[in-house]
Amino acid sequence: MKVMVVENYKELSQKSAQMFYQSIINKRAINLGLATGGTPVGFYQELVKFLKGHDMTECIRTFNLDEYIGLSKGNPNSFYTFMNDHFYKPLNLSDDQTFIPNGKADDLEDESSQYETLIQSYGGIDLQLLGVGENGHIGFNEPGSHFEQRTHVVNLKPSTVQANARFFNSIKDVPKKAITMGIGTILDAKEIIVIANGEHKAEAIYQLVHGEKSRNWPITALKGHSNVTVILDEAAANKV
Ligand code: GLP
Hints:
Elements: E1 2-5, H1 9-25, E2 30-34, H2 41-51, E3 60-64, E4 66-68, H3 79-88, E5 98-99, H4 108-121, E6 127-130, E7 152-155, H5 158-164, E8 177-180, H6 183-187, E9 191-196, H7 202-210, E10 228-232
Parallel strand pairs: 1-10, 2-3, 2-6, 3-5, 6-9, 9-10
Antiparallel strand pairs: 4-8, 7-8
The structure holds 2-amino-2-deoxy-6-O-phosphono-alpha-D-glucopyranose (GLP).
Residues 35-39, 65-66, 131-133, 139-140, 160, 164 line the site of 2-amino-2-deoxy-6-O-phosphono-alpha-D-glucopyranose.
């Protein structure tokens, strides 16, 4: 595992976007695994800057980690809307190159297994971006998750609902369930880049770098992967 500590959020966003850009220009086709949340906002801004105006977005396919259950695509708080605003729309990416689970599917179990199959049918993920929750969750794989799991329905921990309430008008509006790629799905990515900033992420990062592999800290599953880069600001790195 490679750990890079940069000075601030701007640098973290630039560095991670640059690594994605390098991989994209080196490939004729690339499957990107993408994340939502506050952390990657700067990453998307920088990556859009790198890619805009270059005639290379056709080679990109994107697969998002997760989506809330019960929110339609058009809901301002859906992860689809987040992705559309920050990445799909600025780059004019089409529906047949951008994939995200459907949190309004009638049969959510079926939606989960179809999403898993879809990723496999395109040959798997080449490069995966990950943020991390304060409790160590990746995607929406909460503490206690099995490391072999594939895409599935999850119940969110109260602490995760609380942490994500800042994006909603009221905590009551935050969905309590989501569809997420499983840790097994994530570990199949050929390369993984983790980004984290702020002191509230320092414990999860400590567990990743120095802790034992443990289901109590889902991010420690990455210890079993051979190509992981962790990019941190100084606050997130302060226990490393
Ligand atoms: C969410 C997402 C994760 C994300 C995490 C941290 O719940 N499902 O993919 O990494 O929370 O979010 P943030 O970057 O806002 O701290």
